[in-house]
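ok posting inputs for the glycinamide ribonucleotide job
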Amino acid sequence: MNKRIVILISGRGSNMQAIVERCAQEGWAADVVAVISNKPEASGLAWAAQQGIATAALNHKAFANREAFDAELAQEIDRHAPDVVVLAGFMRILTPSFVQHYQGRLLNIHPSLLPAFPGLHTHRKAIEAGCRVAGATVHFVTADLDHGPIVSQVVVPVSTTDDEDSLAARILVGEHRIYPQAVRWCVEGRLRIEGCRVHQLDGEAQCLML
Ligand code: GAR
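and the output
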């Protein structure tokens, strides 16, 4: 039976789109069964609906607190009985109990070479820090924001002419390569977590240099 993927977004959903497209093109034994957003206006929702994927919007502003929102979100996710839950530009801090519930099957992508620059404005921070390389990281989610066992990273050179937007655009190209690959590894059971380290069982490279 095909594995079931639920993707959470907050905005345009280009990583979600890359995952949906690669899943179809490469014929994974998996389906993206739902795309859920905390922002009703997220443009990625319309794209997903056009592909015939179930969509839902849960406006976090309508909830009294983080716990109440996360509890409802988990209910909505679990209606789809996911094997893997994928955060793709989902810009919410998650409660420890939510993270615990999906432990080992909750993936995130963050646009920095973690553990450098967790949080927001990562591209600006990398430029301001004088970094010569930047990138993005796919990791299993733990209760620590933007931390957790690293599945793969893409490394992108920072040029002296880069600004936040140009760097973000180049890193995004890399995100669209490593995130679908990491999700595929996860649904195919080709990852093993050992403490902080994640092993790709076929020995495929867990680092991409652009
Ligand atoms: C991506 O760059 C992703 O790495 C980042 O948000 C963007 C979403 O773009 N995620 C985070 O910053 C999470 N901390 P998308 O909606 O086009 O995929």
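notes: Residues 9, 11-15, 88-89, 109-111, 136, 146, 172, 175 surround glycinamide ribonucleotide (CB under 6 Å). Strands lie at 3-9, 30-37, 54-57, 84-87, 106-110, 133-140, 150-157, 191-194, 197-200, 207-209.
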